[in-house]
Amino acid sequence: MAPKKIKARPSAGANPNIPGISPTAQLPSISPLSLLIWLYILRLYNALNIETFFQPDEYFQALEPAWAAAFGENSGAWITWEWREHLRSSLHPLLFTGVYKVAGSYCNALDLPAEVRSKILLAAPKVLQAVFAACTDLFTYLLAGKMYGRQSPEATAALMLTILSPWQWFCSGRTFSNCLETTLTVAALVLWPWDWFVHGVDSKKRDDNAVEGSQRHDLPFRLYPSLALAALACILRPTNPIIWIALTGTLTWNRFVQPAVIPKLLVSAAITGSVVLTFSIAADRAFYGELVLPPLKFLQFNVGQGLAGFYGVNRLAYYFTEGIGLLLISALPFALLELYYGLRLRDDRQPGTPRVRSLRSILAYTVLIDILALSLISHKEVRFIYPLLPILHVLAARPAAAFFHPTAIQAQKYRGMLFTLGFALNLIVAQYSTGRHQRGVMDVMHYLRKEYEVRYQPPGPNHGNMTVGFLMPCHSTPWISHFIHPEINAWALTCEPPLGLSGEQRRDYLDEADVFYADPAKWMQTNMADVGRRGAAVGRSSKRAWPQYVAFFQQLEATMKSVLEGSEYKECWRGFNTHWHDDWRRKGDVVVWCRGRQW
User: Broadest EC class (predicted)?
Assistant: First the structure.
């Protein structure tokens, strides 16, 4: 992992007392722009080759509203209840709206065939998302440069950790708001004026007079773009302020901020935040057609009404026992070691220069406070702590660079073996998570879209709209972002939350998917028309007509055979989905049965 030595020059984080860290190691100089281009090529390849499903928000909180804004309300987008209740900021989907409009105009101008147009519209959001993913990698490297020196082996290690991170390969190319939140957060941390705050700690003994003297001057200019990016992250994800409260609280508690400076910081944050909030309100006004404040609505729903737990409740210690491990995989031991050092504030025997020790302590406490605060929310997901991953990679970089330095590997051969095993583990996890686990629910969308393009568009054998029903847990697949064609008339089970109900009513509440899986056969008898007829029977118009294509998980296959026995339905497609799943309803292959299909 260490680069070729070019010139003797001590790095900011080098410590001659730690075996394996060479104070003379230096990287070949490369401009951030050049590095960004290479990282973008890498992440574009990454994004275009993600073939698996993770969470519905990747589509229903980004691409579905973006599609509707780009192509109109009748374009087939599924707008979920969060958008009807104004819980989400429009800033994130509007980015993809622009991409969709450009891609759609390009296809129309060239009068491209339906198949080609589909491929372009499928790829368009990934092309933009790769920019955010590459920026996350770049800013992780630059943040490490702020701490250790840009040409230090530690900065190189941080870059390698983020490039080889299985979580980055799995998640950074997906259109989650958490991904953009992570990019904005680490960019804000890079622009944060660290030297202004930790001035005077490079000497053996902390010089409080030097800190106070440096802060007699006006606030550094780059603080303002840092605050602006942080404010944008907070608008996107209303839990992001916890990171900045933790950061500024740690700086203040450890006397890196003089009392006289605090009012200036608060005023600057208020002014910058107000400008960003005004911009956000204007965008939401145009998007929703009325004056709304999504971050406030988000907190009111998730915290005030306590409805976040409707979509799952996790153990209090989930982030500590599982979350951090899933984020870091093979980098976990190095990050834990550095967090341990960072949380021991008063130990001058810690490795690194006084400045590195100070920054390590600030970042370690920021991570700890953020995770503790998020642990108090009942609904937990690993992606909620994703913005901490760049910080954790920067912290893990020092012990990783020391452990895998060529000198250390030559002295202890097992370290080279561990590097190979770690690299192989990352590669296997990244490949399995992006190419294998839960790919069936993506493949079925490609199958159905191609069925429409081949069979329902001239000169195909069928005419009219294609009908599809999904008897799966709600939001098990993407929607119009992968159907592409609004002429595909599809429906799926829903899972609307218990809005406006009392606490007692919420306890007994079952959404449509819950009712279905409580007794699938009864639900189909009650809610579906006569299976022997292609349309709803006369006098039973309130029931759904059986569609031409029915998609479901293998777990439901025995029930479907019982209910549809003797009907025209036949299996027409089956695709592998997963070897295992923690939701029993989603186990096995994805299966499609067809009726009225000209084989």
Answer: transferase
